[in-house]
Amino acid sequence: MGSYEELISYFEDQLSKQAFGYQPGELYAPINYTIRLGGKRIRPILTLISCELFGGKKEEALSQAIAIELFHNFTLIHDDIMDNAPIRRGEETVFKKWNANIAILSGDTLFALAYQYAQQARIDILPETLSVFSKTAIEVCEGQQFDLNYENSNNVSVEAYIEMIRLKTAVLFGASLKIGALVGGAKIEDANSLYDFGINIGLGFQLKDDLLDTFGDEEVFGKKTGGDIISNKKTFLYLKALELADDQTKAELIELYNTNKLSDQDKTQRVKEIFTELGVDQSANSLIDTYYMEGMKKLDTISISEASKDILRDVAHRMIDREK
Amino acid sequence: MGSYEELISYFEDQLSKQAFGYQPGELYAPINYTIRLGGKRIRPILTLISCELFGGKKEEALSQAIAIELFHNFTLIHDDIMDNAPIRRGEETVFKKWNANIAILSGDTLFALAYQYAQQARIDILPETLSVFSKTAIEVCEGQQFDLNYENSNNVSVEAYIEMIRLKTAVLFGASLKIGALVGGAKIEDANSLYDFGINIGLGFQLKDDLLDTFGDEEVFGKKTGGDIISNKKTFLYLKALELADDQTKAELIELYNTNKLSDQDKTQRVKEIFTELGVDQSANSLIDTYYMEGMKKLDTISISEASKDILRDVAHRMIDREK
Question: What is the pTM of this model?
Answer without folding.
Answer: 0.96
